[in-house]
Specification:
Blueprint lengths: L9 E6 L3 H5 L2 H9 L3 E6 L4 H6 L4 E3 L6 H9 L20 H21 L2 H11 L3 E4 L5 H9 L2 E5 L5 H14 L9 H11 L7 H5 L2 E4 L13 E3 L23 E5 L1 H6 L9 H9 L4 E5 L2 H4 L9 E4 L4 H4 L5 E4 L3 H9 L4 E3 L6 H11 L2 E3 L7 H13 L1 H15 L4 H15 L4
Parallel strand pairs: 1-2, 1-4, 2-3, 4-5, 5-6, 6-7, 8-9, 8-11, 9-10, 11-12, 12-13
Helix pairs in contact: 2-19, 4-5, 5-8, 6-7, 12-17, 17-18
GO biological process, one term: antibiotic biosynthetic process
Keywords: Antibiotic biosynthesis, Glycosyltransferase, Transferase
GO molecular function: hexosyltransferase activity; UDP-glycosyltransferase activity
């Protein structure tokens, strides 16, 4: 049947088994649900409890993975995912050899292992359920495959800077300038082999989606040629409770120190700087420090000043409105929540695109970055002192928040996606 303007859609979200990537999808999933659409979230079984904990309907598919441990072995750094520097994307197209090397590494060690464990079941489920729209986060290329096979419209839902889209476009541009016999496209080949099993062929819509949904404010986006839909970042930190102590504002500035959900899960971004050093670096600045650490992490801290409060979990969307600064690893959820509440940031970039985001943020004036390799107690303390005492940082953070407030909310995006699907003539 062809949709009329008011007819509900079937919307399938899909995500690899990674909590923070899924968290970025929850506000739009609920906006779709509240607009009357039928929403399901397909993921590997390990994510099912997190999905249902968000009040959404889970479709467990495939098998769970240990890809993060595999990456750690490749990196030679136990407990850590490989670090990739995307900052070259800010300075023009990186060298062709670097671009090809990036995709030659990522495709067989990250994307294929993550997606091959459930792409077939996801595709079969999409053929059975017949979604009108598939929304997938940037690591879940299985979403593009499933949507292509079942004929649905689909979009990438970003949770950070579009480093994959930007670097792929740069690679494709370089390949276009080379003789065909020198073409090498690991991602296109892998996706092409996967689609061939279903009688389909690869094109770039599979890798990019028909639309790309951006959550970053314009000042913090990479230039792109994609069909971009913009939406405001809305913090979601999972099921949580507001602690009693948060009702009482401190008499001194409050600084949050957090290593993020990825580090807690042990899947990515495990810190290379001991938490105790981070806390001692800022504890003597006459501030209250709130550190979110697991019990295992807390046991390594030793004796801390009374001004440091160590908590296992506290919802960042409840904590950050009462903070004057945050020190963190550069993870997407922490970064986005700090932007949302206009909190100046000191980033010790650890994972994925964090060095790029840290540099972009510093360029706006809304924060500072402390490279892991050059981090000292003195340099971190000075960075925190500056963002607390120099008003320019708070002013820049408020400008970024104003940019975010000008972006459409999830409800507006849900309505726009329905219009786009209707315009495409998609039939269920």
């Amino acid at each position: 049947m062809t949709h009329s303007s008011g007819r509900p859609m079937r919307v399938l979200f899909t995500c690899i088994d990674h909590t923070t990537h899924f968290h970025s999808m929850v506000p739009l999933a609920w906006a779709m649900r509240l607009a009357g659409h039928e929403v399901r979230v397909a993921a590997q079984p390990g994510l099912a409890e997190t999905i249902t904990g968000a009040g959404l309907t889970a479709v467990p598919l495939g098998s769970d993975h240990t890809v993060w441990e595999h990456q750690a072995a490749l990196a030679g750094q136990p407990g850590n995912a490989p670090r990739i520097d995307f900052t070259d994307l800010l300075d023009g197209a990186p060298d062709f050899a670097d671009l090809l090397g990036l995709w030659t590494i990522l495709t067989p060690t990250v994307f294929a292992p993550l997606n091959d464990l459930f792409v077939d079941e996801l595709t079969e489920y999409a053929q059975h359920w017949k979604p009108d729209l598939v929304l997938w986060e940037p690591f879940t290329y299985a979403g593009g495959v499933a949507a292509t096979v079942c004929g649905a419209r689909h979009a990438r839902l970003l949770w950070g800077a579009d480093v994959l889209g930007r670097s792929r476009r740069a690679l494709l541009g370089a390949l276009d300038r080379m003789p065909p016999e020198h073409h090498d496209d690991p991602l296109g080949e892998w996706l092409g082999w996967t689609l061939h099993r279903y009688g389909c062929t690869f094109d770039e819509d599979v890798a990019f989606g028909h639309w790309t949904i951006e959550v970053e404010p314009p000042s913090l986006r990479l230039p792109t040629d994609e069909h971009v839909l913009s939406t405001r970042y809305v913090p979601y930190n999972g099921p949580s409770r507001v602690p009693d102590w948060l009702r009482n504002p401190p008499d001194v500035p409050r600084v949050c120190v957090t290593l993020g959900v990825s580090a807690r899960d042990g899947k990515a971004g495990v810190h290379s700087v001991p938490p105790g050093e981070l806390l001692h670096a800022v504890a003597d600045l006459g501030v209250e420090v709130v550190a979110t650490l697991t019990a295992e992490q807390a046991e390594t801290l030793g004796r801390l000043p009374d001004s440091v409060r160590v908590v296992d979990r506290v919802p960042l969307h409840a904590l950050l409105p009462h903070c004057d600064a945050i020190v963190h690893h550069g993870g997407a959820g922490t970064w986005g929540t700090a932007l949302h509440y206009a909190v100046p940031q000191v980033i010790v970039p650890e994972i994925w695109d964090a060095p790029l985001k840290a540099r972009m943020l510093a360029d706006t004036g809304a924060g500072l970055t402390e490279p892991v390799g050059g981090l000292t107690t003195e340099s971190l303390r000075e960075a925190v002192r500056r963002v607390l005492t120099e008003p320019e940082f708070s002013e820049a953070a408020r400008r970024l928040r104003a940019e975010m407030e000008d972006q459409p909310g999830p409800a507006e995006l849900a309505a726009e996606l329905q219009r786009l699907v209707l315009r495409s003539g998609r039939s269920a």
